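In response to the reviewer comment on reproducibility (Comment 2.3), we provide here a single inverse folding case reported in full, input and output, so that an independent group could reproduce the run without further information from us. The structure tokens appear first.
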């Protein structure tokens, strides 16, 4: 048995999950946790699970994530039951004999969920229909949580999408410059300084009470949607680790940042990076179609700004990680975080040019004049 299989066996044992492990494949979608697709033979039947080790450098109190997920999924399931629909097709975590939905030992902090049958994830798609379907899924998720009491949730990463504090943190690290890398990024820092006033507008609207926090997903990349392998429609959203109070503009914006870009998040050739307006429109149609009646006018009016804001926030976060020695995001090669930051900066600049056009599309779909 190879090392991964031996490790998976130990984790399966902690959950009293019997059966012979046939296969364990690394899933390399995320930048934070370690994820494996594991197939076991149980009573003559092959069954698939997702084993995941939580990154405790990022999630300092992983038990609190699992508490949040439990509360949120229970709320969604209760609502679905009221609507006459049975079990959500989302992730269901296994329990240990001690009744916990995680195990914590010398191998780390682990959880196991059942693999959702016939589901696939998508990292990149040029098809606007895929975006529309993802928009509907995140919109439905938002609507399901619209009556969820936010005070019940732990803030698992404080100030997660507090763009202003992310920018302040970056300037602090530029000053300290622990890895002596700041001199390599003077152009990027100059651009961040110039773009910051626009990126903190959402913060200012919150300060003035014009926008309020709701319970949001906070990590709405398209690869956090499970699609039906047969119909291609979005089944459900996954990765509920960062469900916390946030702005609707953050959820809308992060999905656009990732899903409506013409390039991957870490494309080194910046001439390939721009915002695809067809995919923007498609996502907006899907998302707004689900949430329109529950959003305020100000929330609708700031969706497009959310796309720019989340993109600039990622410039800041990737650059900050680069300056402080690449400790937060997983990297595939030296300088990966810098490549990501530059790519996101090119996208943010393009989004700013297209902000009016994005706003017009939102107002057309939502039915108000801008
Ligand atoms: C991280 O691991 P993943 O890819 O789901 C990050 C998000 C970033 C994203 C950038 C907890 O998410 O906030 O937007 O990378 N998650 C956390 O791709 O920091
Ligand atoms: Mg995630």
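Designed residues, in position order:
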């Amino acid at each position: 048995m190879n090392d991964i299989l031996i490790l998976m066996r130990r984790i399966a044992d902690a959950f009293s999950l019997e059966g012979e492990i046939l296969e364990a494949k690394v899933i390399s979608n995320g930048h934070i946790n370690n994820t494996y697709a594991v197939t076991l033979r149980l009573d003559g039947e092959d069954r698939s699970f997702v084993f995941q080790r939580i990154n405790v450098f990022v999630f300092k109190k992983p038990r609190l994530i699992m508490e949040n997920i439990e509360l949120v999924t229970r709320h969604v399931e209760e609502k679905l039951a009221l609507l006459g629909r049975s079990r959500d097709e989302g992730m269901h975590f296994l329990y240990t004999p001690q009744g916990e939905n995680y195990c914590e030992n010398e191998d780390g902090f682990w959880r196991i969920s059942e693999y959702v049958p016939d589901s696939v994830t998508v990292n990149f798609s040029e098809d606007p229909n895929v975006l529309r379907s993802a928009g509907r899924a995140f919109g439905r998720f938002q609507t399901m949580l619209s009556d969820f009491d936010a005070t019940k949730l732990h803030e698992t990463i404080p100030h997660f999408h507090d763009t202003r504090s992310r920018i302040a943190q970056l300037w602090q690290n530029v000053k300290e410059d622990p890895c002596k890398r700041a001199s390599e990024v003077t152009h990027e820092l100059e651009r961040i300084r110039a773009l910051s006033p626009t990126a903190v507008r959402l913060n200012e609207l919150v300060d003035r009470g014009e926008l309020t926090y709701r319970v949001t997903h906070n990590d709405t990349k398209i690869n956090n949607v499970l699609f039906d392998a047969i119909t291609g429609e979005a089944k459900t959203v996954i990765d509920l680790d960062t469900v916390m109070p946030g702005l609707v503009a953050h959820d809308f914006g992060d999905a656009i940042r990732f899903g409506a870009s013409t390039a991957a998040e870490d494309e080194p050739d910046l001439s390939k990076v721009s915002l695809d307006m067809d995919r923007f429109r498609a996502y907006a149609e899907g998302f707004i179609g689900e949430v329109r009646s529950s959003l305020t006018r100000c929330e609708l009016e700031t969706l497009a700004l959310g796309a720019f804001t989340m993109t600039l926030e990622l410039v800041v976060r990737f650059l900050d990680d680069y300056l402080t020695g690449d400790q937060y995001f997983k990297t595939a090669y030296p300088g990966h975080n810098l490549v990501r930051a530059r790519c996101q900066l090119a996208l943010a600049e393009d989004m700013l040019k297209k902000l009016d056009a994005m706003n017009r599309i939102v107002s057309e779909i939502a039915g108000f004049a801008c």
